[in-house]
Predict the structure.
Amino acid sequence: MPILVDSNVIFDVVHQDPVWFEWSLTALENHSADGLVANAMIYAELCSNAETTQEVDDLLQSMGIVVLEIPPAALFLAAKAHVAYRRRGGSRTSALPDFFIGAHAEVAGLAILTRDQARYRSYFPTVPLVCPAKEC
């Protein structure tokens, strides 16, 4: 099953995060044979720390991560999950990308490699998650 790689895992490796670098690098290596993928939301998050799109493209290529298009059904599901989140009192400034990532994974049958699993568990409970043991 392909793995949708959350930007926090990529940032851990790029910035050699003192707490998460080893876990994130090992997780990427352990799941590379499954097929590592990203989507437009993850790509956009990565652009926040880049000077050019070529820099992001090169980074993803070096990590063996392929960018997939988000299917329309996932866009619809993301909007519905975000509405449910707002009805439960979630803030308007919440990280909307998580809803697009979770919905994409659910619709496309992908797992998510992440350190931030709470929202995925709440709104996309059937999506398999790969996360640190203490977080999963």
Q: What stands out?
A: Residues 10 and 24 are 8 Å apart (CA to CA). The chain has a mean pLDDT of 92.
